[in-house]
Amino acid sequence: MAQNPLTVPRGERWAKGYRRFRAQGVLQAFAIAGFVYLLIFCYTPMLGLGIAFRNYQPKMGIAGFFTAEWVGLKHFKAFFGDYQFADIMTNTVVLSLLKLVFSFPIPIIFALALNEMQHPKIKRVVQTVSYLPHFISWVIVYGLLFTLFNTSSGMVNNLLADLGFEKVEILTGKEYYWTLAILSDIWKEMGWWSIIFLAAISGVDPSQYESAKVDGATRLQSIWHITLPNIRSTIMVMLILAIGSLLSGGMGGSNFDQSYLLGNSINYSKSVTLPYYVYQVGLSQLRYSYAAAAGLFQSVISLLLVLGSNYASKKLTGTGFF
């Protein structure tokens, strides 16, 4: 009969735990390193959120996080009452929703298409080429877009001029910003996110496809009735994460990079988003407390989106992130 742990002397329990810890030394080292990383870089900086409720000035130093004048919700009220608030939230929410609608299904479709390819070498080449843009910084992406679309010497505008058409101000026209942002985000992140779905597809039991083939199922029917149901949990987890990062730009989290690089004084009303606004008022205008309030608002909404989407997913599909 197994001995009740509560009846074992405390010293013996400590000794047994220590021996187990030493036996798992390497694994424990990895776990401790991860915990220390989270503690230093994720949890400790959260102490700085207090400046959202204080009149903090950089000259106060770290002590100012706790000694600056307490002003409560003053900065939140100022943010909600800002004349740009409507444009900021509209651009952030609508642009992120559009990215979610168009960017989220494409990696899934792309992964399904890759999985159906019969030539392994071609499949590897296509997959490699597709995820390479993920490693290109948005600065380089902007350089490529500038080379293609600038009105003075861009390749696309030069081609339009040679064909007798008027040049199009794609980079500066505010009516083109959302389309440019969505398409560039898809191009940059499609291949990278498809890796996750390909990994999920590789875990599907091949015997299911063989049985479906014997029963006369077509490839599309196998995808619909076998592949997609088997990777549903992965899709739902990724969807929850994408919804949680909605205010920062969806799966790619690219709202700030695109607003900073593709935005200008002409398309500002369409390009300004919440992450870029936080940077603008925080680092450019040195309004740290105000920027902290706006950033905290973004974080709280993101947390609520994660909790809400996870709850809805568990209710509707039985699958959730936690």
TrEMBL record:
GO biological process: transmembrane transport
Localisation per UniProt entry: Cell membrane; Membrane
Keywords of this entry: Membrane, Transmembrane, Transmembrane helix, Transport
Domain ABC transmembrane type-1: start-end pairs: 89-309
Superkingdom: Bacteria
GO annotation, cellular component aspect: plasma membrane
Entry's transmembrane regions: 26-53, 93-114, 135-156, 222-247, 288-307
UniProt feature coiled coil, ranges: none
Membrane topology: Multi-pass membrane protein
Xref: Gene3D superfamilies: MetI-like
CDD domains assigned to the protein according to its UniProt record, in alphabetical order: TM_PBP2
Signal peptide: none
InterPro entries, A to Z: MetI-like (IPR000515), MetI-like_sf (IPR035906)
Protein family membership: Belongs to the binding-protein-dependent transport system permease family.
Designated name of the protein: Sugar ABC transporter permease
